[in-house]
């Protein structure tokens, strides 16, 4: 049993210390991911709070997830989508733009001092920004959250083979856009 499995079991058995560890371990990841689903920071915060309240109130009946981060991300996405749908039905939200998965890839730490490197990074940002929200979400889950294809498929209601094919197509598309542009002269 690994460390987080022990913490999860302790949490299910009523340990507030274990609950706190889970919260502080994943709060930033959940907030970042939720902020990609909707721009409304209050909705993200409310939904994260709801997620942890639901976890706490039903802790004795929860399954033992193979990957806790995946489990929490999937649960948060479900809660956010449910909340946005309810808000739209009640006329509180302007439209479906709330669902547009928006990711701003943070390359500030990666940018070198040379202008050539800055130019390359700007090109990469521009190309990534031009991707559809679904493609951005696939890349985020695969390369930032480091989820496996079957986990991504479960989150996005796709088949694992479709996830693999889509990621391959996205990377091929990026490669074509960059062909020759990143070659050192």
Automatic annotation (TrEMBL):
<comment type="similarity">
    <text>Belongs to the sigma-70 factor family. ECF subfamily.</text>
</comment>
<dbReference type="Pfam" id="PF08281">
    <property type="entry name" value="Sigma70_r4_2"/>
</dbReference>
<dbReference type="InterPro" id="IPR014284">
    <property type="entry name" value="RNA_pol_sigma-70_dom"/>
</dbReference>
<dbReference type="InterPro" id="IPR013325">
    <property type="entry name" value="RNA_pol_sigma_r2"/>
</dbReference>
<dbReference type="InterPro" id="IPR039425">
    <property type="entry name" value="RNA_pol_sigma-70-like"/>
</dbReference>
<protein>
    <recommendedName>
        <fullName>RNA polymerase sigma factor 70 region 4 type 2 domain-containing protein</fullName>
    </recommendedName>
</protein>
<keyword id="KW-0731">Sigma factor</keyword>
<dbReference type="GO" id="GO:0003677">
    <property type="term" value="F:DNA binding"/>
</dbReference>
<dbReference type="GO" id="GO:0016987">
    <property type="term" value="F:sigma factor activity"/>
</dbReference>
<dbReference type="InterPro" id="IPR036388">
    <property type="entry name" value="WH-like_DNA-bd_sf"/>
</dbReference>
<dbReference type="InterPro" id="IPR013324">
    <property type="entry name" value="RNA_pol_sigma_r3/r4-like"/>
</dbReference>
<feature type="domain" description="RNA polymerase sigma factor 70 region 4 type 2">
    <location>
        <begin position="122"/>
        <end position="174"/>
    </location>
</feature>
<keyword id="KW-0804">Transcription</keyword>
<dbReference type="GO" id="GO:0006352">
    <property type="term" value="P:DNA-templated transcription initiation"/>
</dbReference>
<dbReference type="InterPro" id="IPR013249">
    <property type="entry name" value="RNA_pol_sigma70_r4_t2"/>
</dbReference>
<keyword id="KW-0805">Transcription regulation</keyword>
